[in-house]
From TrEMBL:
Transmembrane regions listed in the UniProt entry: 29-48, 69-90, 142-160
The keyword Transmembrane appears for this protein: yes
Superkingdom of the source species: Bacteria
Keyword Chloroplast carried by entry: no
Record PANTHER family: PTS SYSTEM GLUCITOL/SORBITOL-SPECIFIC EIIC COMPONENT, PTS SYSTEM GLUCITOL_SORBITOL-SPECIFIC EIIC COMPONENT
Gene that encodes the chain: srlA
Keywords: Membrane, Transmembrane, Transmembrane helix
Range of residues in the leader sequence: none
Name of the protein this chain belongs to: PTS system glucitol/sorbitol-specific EIIC component
InterPro entries attached to this UniProt entry: PTS_IID_sorb
Organism expressing this protein natively: Periweissella ghanensis
Length: 183
């Protein structure tokens, strides 16, 4: 009977600890994320969805824009998973590469912009807590992680272009590389 009682106590303690963490988040990170989401939606409404769509189509013409700038803007403005939707304006050939670059950026920017990927914020918070315990500046780490991530997004997108080309050739499939602007 003692084991059952200890198990039940431990089980409840797990939820009490989770509740305490949730309350801490509700006082610290949740308001920040909420306000950033409101700001991003306001900017999209102010600029206009059509202008954002045209920008995404034009960005698809240049490899640096496609795998460095567009993923950054999409993640910052729309967050994860909505950031992937800007890939619909790219030609079929570049969609896998955009997805690869975008998926990486949603992880590497979380320390600087927590609203991008709040579902995985606990990973960054764990790392940041360790950095803080060492007496180091977590913002320095967040910025370095994001900058390295932007470069690696480009490399990942470009490498995916190469593999898409190889696989398309092996499969006998021709994917369009043309951007069709609908103005």
């Amino acid at each position: 009977m003692q084991y059952v009682t200890e198990f039940a106590s431990g089980f409840i303690k797990l939820f009490n600890t989770g509740g305490a963490v949730l309350v801490t988040w509700m006082k610290t990170i949740v308001p920040v994320v909420l306000l950033l989401l409101v700001l991003m939606n306001a900017i999209i409404a102010f600029v206009g969805e059509e202008k954002i769509q045209r920008f995404a189509q034009k960005a698809g013409r240049n490899v640096l824009m496609r795998y460095m700038v567009l993923p950054f803007i999409a993640a910052f403005m729309l967050g994860n998973p909505m950031a992937f939707t800007l890939g619909r304006f790219l030609p079929e050939f570049y969609k896998p590469s955009y997805y690869a670059a975008q998926a990486q950026f949603c992880h590497t920017s979380n320390g600087v912009f927590p609203h991008i990927n709040p579902g995985e914020l606990f990973v960054w918070l764990g790392i940041a807590q360790g950095i803080q315990a060492l007496g180091l500046n977590q913002i320095d780490l967040a910025i370095r992680y994001m900058l390295v991530g932007i470069v690696m997004n480009f490399v990942g997108g470009w490498f995916t272009d190469l593999t898409t080309k190889m696989v398309s050739k092996q499969m006998g499939i021709t994917l369009s590389k043309e951007v069709e602007l609908k103005v």
